[in-house]
Amino acid sequence: MTSPCSTPPAGATTRNRSILVCGGAGYIGSHMTQWLATQGHTVTVLDNLSSGHRQAVHWGELIEADLLDAPALEQVFRRKRFDAVMHFCARSLVGESITKPYDYYANNVTGTLNLLETMRRHDVNKLVFSSTAAIFGNPIHDVMDEEHPKVPINPYGASKLMSERIFADAAQAYGLHSVALRYFNAAGALPEHGIGEAHACETHLIPNVLRSALGTGGMLKVFGHDYATHDGTCIRDYVHVQDLAQAHSLAVDFMDENPGAHAFNLGNGQGFSVREVISTAAAVVGRSIPYEVAPRRAGDPASLVASSCKARAQLGWRPQWTELEPIIESAWRWHRNPPQWFPSQA
């Protein structure tokens, strides 16, 4: 894929940092710890293991703790000195956030405040935050940049947007430096390192397509086939999880010279329909993947595609996984041979 954005050379750093990865036992967090370790950084993982997996922590010490437990956080920061914090801890199921909004605001906002207060007491002033395209709500442009109106339509998106607002206020009041990275659709895996999208309750399209191909996930459902798109199904932007990890690492370096609160959209810059994902997956696995059409889901926009020009220009982000087929192929290799602790039928 040819990018419409100009991308300067990425600035390399040789500085070893001590980085706390909150949520480092989860899908994106575990890939983050692998990336940091290969870059020579010292990694500490904090996770309550409610949705993450102890066995996914191959790089760095695991501390089992919850962001809602302020005294436990205090002990973590007393034990070690951190140069920066990466924050992946969140409840992230859109439908569940609608039925359990208190849980989402408590976990995603109060937990974040606890972390920020502890960081401030221990003079740690760099934070990279896992945000989401859900802060934007329904798109009014085909390709969404950082200035797109932010009108979240569910508590999950609202909780993430609240956190971003807190970071802006904290920059002015306390000198916090932060980068919020707004993902569109994380995908793919690093099967050679034993990590992939290990969700017991899976809601994402690509893993559900692959589970259906394996016969372990039931009949695949396509929610809606009458959208105003070229084939009637929703269009989404997919970015490989390792490219997300690269962006987080670059964000830490970026804060060295750029104080204050910043935000970047992360995506492929092009969209693929549900039917295109299914047909590409069928080519990867070597057989057709049947599906049934189900009614539309409430709150599903027809198309969500990111502009990542700002991340390319300012962070020097250079995604390596720019085509859909290799992204799906990496996930297929993980799902076809998952680690014993996560059986494929889970």
From TrEMBL:
Domain of life: Bacteria
Subunit structure: Homodimer.
Annotated protein name in UniProt: UDP-glucose 4-epimerase
Family according to the record: Belongs to the NAD(P)-dependent epimerase/dehydratase family.
Pathway(s) per entry: Carbohydrate metabolism; galactose metabolism
Co-factor(s): NAD(+)
A biological-process GO annotation: galactose catabolic process via UDP-galactose, Leloir pathway
